[in-house]
Amino acid sequence: MQLSGGDGTSTYTLDFQLKGTSWSTTTSVKFTDKTTVTLSIPNDQVQLWWPNGHGDQPLYELVVTSGTQLMDSRLIGFRTVELIQHNYTAGIQGLSFYFQINGRPIFVKGSNWIPSDAFQERVTDEKLEKLLTSAKLAGMNMLRVWGGGIYERDSFYEMADRLGIMLWHDFMFACSLYVYLLSHTKYYFNIFSYPVDEPFLMNVRKEVIYQVQRLQSHPCIALWSGNNENEGILAGYIRPLPPAEQEAIKSDYRKLYIGTVMAALLELDPTGSRPFVGSSPSNGIESVQENYTAKNPQDPLYGRRRVFINENHVEF
Q1: What are the residue numbers of the active site?
Q2: Which of the residue ranges 20-34, 44-58, 175-189 has the most confident prediction, judged by mean pLDDT?
Q3: Which of 128, 202, 239, 315 gives a 20 to 30 Å CA spacing to 93?
Q4: Domains in the chain, CATH or no CATH each
Protein backbone atom coordinates (compact mmCIF):
# COMPACT_ATOMS: atom_id res chain seq x y z
CA MET A 1 0.00 0.00 0.00
CA GLN A 2 1.31 3.47 -0.93
CA LEU A 3 0.44 6.55 1.09
CA SER A 4 1.20 10.18 0.33
CA GLY A 5 1.18 13.41 2.30
CA GLY A 6 2.65 14.43 5.62
CA ASP A 7 5.32 16.98 6.48
CA GLY A 8 8.32 14.66 6.69
CA THR A 9 8.81 15.20 10.40
CA SER A 10 5.63 14.03 12.16
CA THR A 11 4.96 10.38 12.92
CA TYR A 12 1.53 9.00 12.05
CA THR A 13 -0.07 5.94 13.61
CA LEU A 14 -2.10 3.98 11.08
CA ASP A 15 -4.56 1.23 11.87
CA PHE A 16 -5.38 -1.37 9.22
CA GLN A 17 -8.40 -3.64 9.46
CA LEU A 18 -9.62 -6.28 7.01
CA LYS A 19 -13.38 -6.40 7.37
CA GLY A 20 -14.94 -9.83 7.63
CA THR A 21 -11.80 -11.30 9.23
CA SER A 22 -10.10 -11.08 12.59
CA TRP A 23 -6.97 -9.53 11.05
CA SER A 24 -5.80 -6.04 11.95
CA THR A 25 -2.48 -4.33 12.52
CA THR A 26 -1.07 -0.97 13.59
CA THR A 27 2.07 0.72 12.34
CA SER A 28 3.78 4.09 12.72
CA VAL A 29 5.10 5.88 9.66
CA LYS A 30 6.81 9.13 8.78
CA PHE A 31 6.28 10.14 5.19
CA THR A 32 6.47 13.06 2.82
CA ASP A 33 5.79 12.50 -0.88
CA LYS A 34 4.94 8.80 -0.67
CA THR A 35 5.57 5.89 1.63
CA THR A 36 5.10 2.18 1.03
CA VAL A 37 3.68 0.05 3.82
CA THR A 38 3.89 -3.73 3.42
CA LEU A 39 1.11 -5.75 5.01
CA SER A 40 1.30 -9.49 5.62
CA ILE A 41 -2.07 -11.20 6.03
CA PRO A 42 -2.05 -14.91 6.95
CA ASN A 43 -3.49 -17.24 4.32
CA ASP A 44 -5.97 -18.72 6.77
CA GLN A 45 -7.64 -15.32 7.18
CA VAL A 46 -8.83 -15.05 3.58
CA GLN A 47 -10.24 -17.06 0.71
CA LEU A 48 -8.73 -16.87 -2.77
CA TRP A 49 -10.26 -14.95 -5.67
CA TRP A 50 -10.80 -17.05 -8.79
CA PRO A 51 -11.67 -16.29 -12.42
CA ASN A 52 -15.18 -17.01 -13.64
CA GLY A 53 -15.80 -20.75 -13.88
CA HIS A 54 -13.00 -21.73 -11.51
CA GLY A 55 -14.30 -20.69 -8.10
CA ASP A 56 -15.72 -17.80 -6.12
CA GLN A 57 -14.70 -14.14 -6.06
CA PRO A 58 -14.53 -13.17 -2.36
CA LEU A 59 -13.71 -9.50 -1.78
CA TYR A 60 -12.64 -7.88 1.46
CA GLU A 61 -12.83 -4.27 2.60
CA LEU A 62 -9.46 -2.96 3.77
CA VAL A 63 -9.93 0.05 6.04
CA VAL A 64 -7.16 2.47 7.02
CA THR A 65 -7.67 4.86 9.92
CA SER A 66 -5.55 7.23 11.97
CA GLY A 67 -7.15 7.68 15.35
CA THR A 68 -10.79 8.42 14.61
CA GLN A 69 -10.08 9.67 11.06
CA LEU A 70 -10.84 7.43 8.10
CA MET A 71 -7.86 7.61 5.74
CA ASP A 72 -8.97 5.21 3.01
CA SER A 73 -10.94 2.04 2.33
CA ARG A 74 -11.26 -0.22 -0.68
CA LEU A 75 -12.38 -3.68 -1.71
CA ILE A 76 -9.54 -6.06 -2.46
CA GLY A 77 -9.15 -9.70 -3.43
CA PHE A 78 -6.37 -12.20 -2.92
CA ARG A 79 -4.90 -14.20 -5.80
CA THR A 80 -1.61 -14.81 -7.57
CA VAL A 81 -1.14 -14.53 -11.32
CA GLU A 82 1.68 -15.94 -13.42
CA LEU A 83 2.26 -15.91 -17.16
CA ILE A 84 3.91 -19.26 -17.88
CA GLN A 85 6.39 -19.26 -20.76
CA HIS A 86 8.55 -22.37 -20.78
CA ASN A 87 10.17 -24.74 -23.24
CA TYR A 88 8.31 -27.82 -24.35
CA THR A 89 9.79 -31.30 -24.45
CA ALA A 90 12.55 -32.16 -26.90
CA GLY A 91 11.56 -31.86 -30.52
CA ILE A 92 8.79 -29.29 -29.97
CA GLN A 93 9.60 -25.74 -30.97
CA GLY A 94 8.42 -22.56 -29.29
CA LEU A 95 7.36 -21.61 -25.78
CA SER A 96 4.17 -22.01 -23.81
CA PHE A 97 2.02 -18.95 -23.10
CA TYR A 98 -0.72 -19.41 -20.54
CA PHE A 99 -1.95 -17.95 -17.26
CA GLN A 100 -1.67 -19.66 -13.92
CA ILE A 101 -3.96 -18.30 -11.21
CA ASN A 102 -3.32 -19.34 -7.61
CA GLY A 103 -1.00 -22.01 -8.96
CA ARG A 104 -3.65 -23.49 -11.26
CA PRO A 105 -3.38 -23.35 -15.08
CA ILE A 106 -6.36 -21.48 -16.51
CA PHE A 107 -7.68 -21.83 -20.05
CA VAL A 108 -8.51 -18.26 -21.03
CA LYS A 109 -11.82 -17.62 -22.79
CA GLY A 110 -12.72 -14.10 -23.68
CA SER A 111 -13.00 -11.21 -26.06
CA ASN A 112 -11.81 -7.70 -26.81
CA TRP A 113 -13.24 -4.76 -24.87
CA ILE A 114 -13.58 -1.43 -26.63
CA PRO A 115 -15.42 1.60 -25.22
CA SER A 116 -19.12 0.72 -25.11
CA ASP A 117 -20.04 4.07 -26.62
CA ALA A 118 -18.09 6.81 -28.39
CA PHE A 119 -19.89 9.30 -26.13
CA GLN A 120 -19.01 8.24 -22.60
CA GLU A 121 -21.69 10.42 -21.02
CA ARG A 122 -24.25 8.00 -22.50
CA VAL A 123 -22.65 5.00 -20.75
CA THR A 124 -24.39 4.10 -17.52
CA ASP A 125 -23.25 1.67 -14.87
CA GLU A 126 -26.32 -0.39 -15.76
CA LYS A 127 -25.05 -0.76 -19.33
CA LEU A 128 -21.58 -1.81 -18.13
CA GLU A 129 -23.15 -4.29 -15.72
CA LYS A 130 -25.24 -5.80 -18.52
CA LEU A 131 -22.26 -6.16 -20.87
CA LEU A 132 -19.92 -7.65 -18.28
CA THR A 133 -22.60 -9.98 -16.97
CA SER A 134 -23.24 -11.12 -20.55
CA ALA A 135 -19.52 -11.96 -20.84
CA LYS A 136 -19.71 -13.98 -17.64
CA LEU A 137 -22.85 -15.86 -18.73
CA ALA A 138 -21.17 -16.64 -22.07
CA GLY A 139 -18.42 -18.44 -20.13
CA MET A 140 -15.74 -15.79 -20.56
CA ASN A 141 -13.10 -15.32 -17.89
CA MET A 142 -10.95 -12.58 -19.49
CA LEU A 143 -11.43 -9.39 -21.50
CA ARG A 144 -8.63 -7.53 -23.20
CA VAL A 145 -8.97 -3.75 -22.64
CA TRP A 146 -7.95 -2.34 -26.02
CA GLY A 147 -5.17 0.25 -26.08
CA GLY A 148 -7.03 2.40 -28.59
CA GLY A 149 -9.82 3.04 -26.12
CA ILE A 150 -9.93 4.51 -22.62
CA TYR A 151 -9.07 3.72 -19.04
CA GLU A 152 -12.53 2.80 -17.78
CA ARG A 153 -14.28 4.29 -14.76
CA ASP A 154 -13.80 2.74 -11.30
CA SER A 155 -17.14 0.90 -11.37
CA PHE A 156 -16.06 -1.09 -14.45
CA TYR A 157 -13.17 -2.65 -12.55
CA GLU A 158 -15.31 -3.20 -9.45
CA MET A 159 -17.78 -5.14 -11.58
CA ALA A 160 -15.02 -7.21 -13.17
CA ASP A 161 -13.71 -8.04 -9.69
CA ARG A 162 -17.15 -9.18 -8.59
CA LEU A 163 -17.91 -11.17 -11.75
CA GLY A 164 -14.55 -12.93 -12.01
CA ILE A 165 -13.58 -11.34 -15.33
CA MET A 166 -9.80 -11.02 -15.60
CA LEU A 167 -8.43 -8.10 -17.62
CA TRP A 168 -5.53 -8.07 -20.04
CA HIS A 169 -5.07 -4.31 -19.85
CA ASP A 170 -3.30 -2.29 -22.52
CA PHE A 171 -1.98 1.12 -21.69
CA MET A 172 -3.67 3.66 -23.94
CA PHE A 173 -1.28 3.79 -26.88
CA ALA A 174 -2.23 2.36 -30.25
CA CYS A 175 -1.54 2.19 -33.99
CA SER A 176 1.14 4.88 -34.13
CA LEU A 177 2.55 4.11 -37.58
CA TYR A 178 0.62 4.24 -40.81
CA VAL A 179 1.66 3.18 -44.30
CA TYR A 180 -0.02 4.20 -47.53
CA LEU A 181 0.38 2.05 -50.61
CA LEU A 182 0.80 4.27 -53.66
CA SER A 183 1.40 1.50 -56.16
CA HIS A 184 2.17 -2.19 -56.29
CA THR A 185 5.87 -1.51 -56.00
CA LYS A 186 6.28 1.66 -53.94
CA TYR A 187 5.36 2.55 -50.39
CA TYR A 188 5.01 6.05 -49.04
CA PHE A 189 5.41 6.32 -45.29
CA ASN A 190 3.56 8.74 -43.11
CA ILE A 191 4.99 8.07 -39.67
CA PHE A 192 2.60 9.31 -37.02
CA SER A 193 4.61 8.06 -34.08
CA TYR A 194 4.14 9.23 -30.54
CA PRO A 195 6.74 11.84 -29.65
CA VAL A 196 9.62 10.90 -27.38
CA ASP A 197 10.70 14.37 -26.25
CA GLU A 198 11.21 14.84 -22.54
CA PRO A 199 7.96 16.74 -21.79
CA PHE A 200 5.86 14.05 -23.46
CA LEU A 201 7.69 11.20 -21.72
CA MET A 202 7.25 12.93 -18.37
CA ASN A 203 3.53 13.19 -19.08
CA VAL A 204 3.39 9.48 -20.02
CA ARG A 205 5.15 8.55 -16.80
CA LYS A 206 2.60 10.52 -14.77
CA GLU A 207 -0.24 8.86 -16.68
CA VAL A 208 1.07 5.35 -16.02
CA ILE A 209 1.72 6.02 -12.34
CA TYR A 210 -1.72 7.57 -11.86
CA GLN A 211 -3.57 4.73 -13.57
CA VAL A 212 -1.59 1.93 -11.91
CA GLN A 213 -2.05 3.48 -8.47
CA ARG A 214 -5.76 3.81 -9.17
CA LEU A 215 -6.23 0.26 -10.43
CA GLN A 216 -3.58 -1.99 -8.90
CA SER A 217 -5.73 -3.13 -5.98
CA HIS A 218 -8.21 -4.82 -8.34
CA PRO A 219 -7.73 -8.60 -8.53
CA CYS A 220 -9.33 -8.61 -11.98
CA ILE A 221 -6.27 -7.03 -13.61
CA ALA A 222 -4.08 -9.93 -14.68
CA LEU A 223 -1.61 -8.33 -17.08
CA TRP A 224 -0.39 -4.93 -18.30
CA SER A 225 0.50 -4.43 -21.96
CA GLY A 226 2.49 -1.46 -23.21
CA ASN A 227 0.40 -0.73 -26.30
CA ASN A 228 -1.87 -2.01 -29.05
CA GLU A 229 -0.17 -3.38 -32.18
CA ASN A 230 2.81 -1.04 -32.29
CA GLU A 231 5.45 -3.79 -32.12
CA GLY A 232 3.70 -5.52 -34.98
CA ILE A 233 3.53 -2.29 -36.96
CA LEU A 234 7.28 -1.89 -36.56
CA ALA A 235 7.88 -5.42 -37.78
CA GLY A 236 5.62 -5.15 -40.78
CA TYR A 237 5.86 -1.64 -42.12
CA ILE A 238 9.36 -0.24 -41.68
CA ARG A 239 11.22 -2.93 -43.61
CA PRO A 240 11.58 -0.86 -46.82
CA LEU A 241 13.36 1.88 -44.86
CA PRO A 242 17.17 2.03 -44.65
CA PRO A 243 18.59 0.10 -41.65
CA ALA A 244 19.66 3.27 -39.82
CA GLU A 245 16.13 4.70 -40.04
CA GLN A 246 14.63 1.41 -38.91
CA GLU A 247 16.86 1.35 -35.84
CA ALA A 248 16.03 4.97 -34.99
CA ILE A 249 12.30 4.17 -35.02
CA LYS A 250 12.87 1.04 -32.91
CA SER A 251 14.95 3.05 -30.45
CA ASP A 252 12.14 5.58 -30.04
CA TYR A 253 9.70 2.71 -29.53
CA ARG A 254 11.82 1.27 -26.72
CA LYS A 255 12.32 4.71 -25.17
CA LEU A 256 8.56 5.15 -24.85
CA TYR A 257 7.22 1.70 -23.99
CA ILE A 258 10.16 0.12 -22.17
CA GLY A 259 12.17 3.05 -20.82
CA THR A 260 9.09 5.01 -19.75
CA VAL A 261 5.90 2.90 -19.53
CA MET A 262 7.50 -0.29 -18.18
CA ALA A 263 9.92 1.66 -15.97
CA ALA A 264 7.07 3.62 -14.36
CA LEU A 265 5.12 0.40 -13.80
CA LEU A 266 8.11 -1.24 -12.11
CA GLU A 267 8.40 1.72 -9.72
CA LEU A 268 5.02 0.72 -8.31
CA ASP A 269 5.34 -3.04 -8.74
CA PRO A 270 9.07 -3.86 -8.43
CA THR A 271 8.42 -7.55 -7.71
CA GLY A 272 6.34 -8.03 -10.86
CA SER A 273 3.17 -9.24 -9.13
CA ARG A 274 1.48 -8.88 -12.52
CA PRO A 275 3.17 -9.77 -15.82
CA PHE A 276 3.97 -7.07 -18.39
CA VAL A 277 4.31 -7.49 -22.14
CA GLY A 278 5.64 -4.72 -24.34
CA SER A 279 2.84 -4.84 -26.89
CA SER A 280 -0.31 -6.66 -27.83
CA PRO A 281 0.19 -8.91 -29.75
CA SER A 282 3.72 -9.83 -28.75
CA ASN A 283 6.00 -12.84 -28.55
CA GLY A 284 6.41 -12.47 -24.80
CA ILE A 285 9.90 -13.30 -23.60
CA GLU A 286 10.96 -14.03 -27.18
CA SER A 287 10.28 -10.36 -27.96
CA VAL A 288 12.32 -9.41 -24.89
CA GLN A 289 15.23 -11.44 -26.22
CA GLU A 290 14.93 -9.50 -29.48
CA ASN A 291 15.21 -6.23 -27.55
CA TYR A 292 11.42 -5.80 -27.41
CA THR A 293 11.09 -5.45 -31.20
CA ALA A 294 10.63 -8.96 -32.62
CA LYS A 295 10.97 -9.61 -36.32
CA ASN A 296 7.60 -11.38 -36.24
CA PRO A 297 5.46 -10.54 -33.18
CA GLN A 298 2.74 -12.79 -34.61
CA ASP A 299 4.94 -15.90 -34.60
CA PRO A 300 2.63 -18.84 -33.76
CA LEU A 301 5.41 -20.46 -31.74
CA TYR A 302 5.55 -17.69 -29.13
CA GLY A 303 3.37 -15.34 -27.13
CA ARG A 304 -0.06 -14.16 -28.10
CA ARG A 305 -1.25 -14.12 -31.70
CA ARG A 306 -4.07 -12.07 -33.10
CA VAL A 307 -6.51 -13.75 -35.45
CA PHE A 308 -9.27 -11.68 -37.02
CA ILE A 309 -12.46 -13.54 -37.81
CA ASN A 310 -14.52 -11.27 -40.02
CA GLU A 311 -17.57 -12.66 -41.76
CA ASN A 312 -18.71 -9.24 -42.94
CA HIS A 313 -17.02 -8.55 -46.25
CA VAL A 314 -18.75 -5.22 -46.81
CA GLU A 315 -16.60 -2.16 -46.22
CA PHE A 316 -18.13 0.74 -44.34
Answers
A1: 229
A2: 44-58
A3: 239
A4: 2-76 (no CATH), 109-289 (3.20.20.80)
